[in-house]
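# step 3/5: fold
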Amino acid sequence: MAKDEIEYKDHNTLFETAPYVESAEKKRVFEAACSREQAKEIEEYLKTPEYQEINFSRKETVINPAKACQPLGAVLGALGFEGTLPFSHGSQGCIAYFRSHLARHFKEPVPAVSSSMTEDGAVFGGMKNLIEGLQNATTLYKPKMVAIHTTCMAEVIGDDLNAFIGNARKEGVISEDFPVAYCNTPSFVGSHTWGYDHMIKGIISYLTERHGDLRPADAPKTEKLNLISGFDTYTANFGEIKRILELFGVEYTFLGDHSESLNSPADGSYKYYYGGTKLADVPLAPGAQATLALQKYSTKKTREYIEESWKQPTSAVYSPIGITATDKLLKEISRITGKPVPQELIKERAQVVDALTDSHPYLHNKRVALVGDPDILLGLISFCLEVGLEPVHILCSNGDKEFEEEAYGLLKASPHGIDAKVYVGHDLWHLRSLLFTDPVDFAIGSTHLKQNCKAAGIPLVRIGFPIFDRHHLHRFPILGYQGALHVLTTVVNTLLQQLDDQAEPHSFDFVR
């Protein structure tokens, strides 16, 4: 077999070749761009305290927020249920964005469809589009359930999903018993975490209430534990939590499990649907002894529904990242189930503590900036404090007052956190100023943080969502003791690589 002689060039080198260099220069001339000297002068000015004051005075303009819109979270939530097809009621461009965003992070195909509304739908309403879309989607893709969410256009004109779905049944497009769940997810408020919450609530409320003669609170009682992951983009986290529960000997039901949907095998064939919570298991979930959410801020509405409609106690933790947060999770599982923490997990904890001790000298007093969603940020703050890192700037574009108070509560309880500042509702352009006026040693966050980190000359540890520019990180857990070990390994090795990169020949050590 002949060797493949194709040379695959990355744009790092491709754009340095003559045709691209010439094209870029012509573009500069056409656009009457400022000189390179002027650009350099502006770049330096953007690093000053004077510009930071102007930057933080912004009221209406948002530049690079560290969040996505509600419907993206709704798509992820829908993918967690058996045979379920996410259906976006809005323009075709919306669902293309959600699918590409998730596909670039997971490196997996993301099955989802759209009602493809255009200008006439925006004026006269999107019922026709939705009904035709339901007919096409169910005929072509044969889902067991469709989960519909709205977008900006549908929300602005006030489309009534419940009425539209009812009309689709009357027209015979879908049968009376075919399950179609829905939720409202206007893109112009909230974020992806809200959308996830609304979709999970929409699905479980629909599946437990669709037969009006059965009340959720009357479901047969069991010793099972319900789990809600929250907006979790690490497929390996599901396996880790399941392993922990199995060591406890606890029977459980994940209310939304997208770990297989977004980690499908390459076995020569492709299916639209992999894994997910069995639809038949959801109506039984109200009979469980409790529901435990692994994220508290991305599951608020769902937990409220469960407490009010199922009459079931709920409990929530922030993302259990690190020793302390995992300890809290295990104690909560033990409290709910009455089962002791397994000896295997106690041993595992000690092994991770040993690893933390080994790496502590390279982490102690290192200054770090953190960016992400509320729950993952609280987990990262807890991890940083227990290993001696000093969180300095904590930016949460989609946080609220409750999150801010909880974050400060964690920070003030440790000498490593007393100088930290939490920025709720701010964006990554705000953070850029902070990285120059109050520098840190490194940052933790998503791919969207890489430009700031490059400008500031600091390493970026990629934890969170989205991660577009590194592969397979979602295949390793960040939750539990094993997740703590993975986060520790990633952070300390990033800092050790930085030491090597900066080392003079006499300090280029073989042993660290």
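# step 4/5: annotate
Residues 480-502 form the longest helix (23 residues).
# step 5/5: archive (pending)
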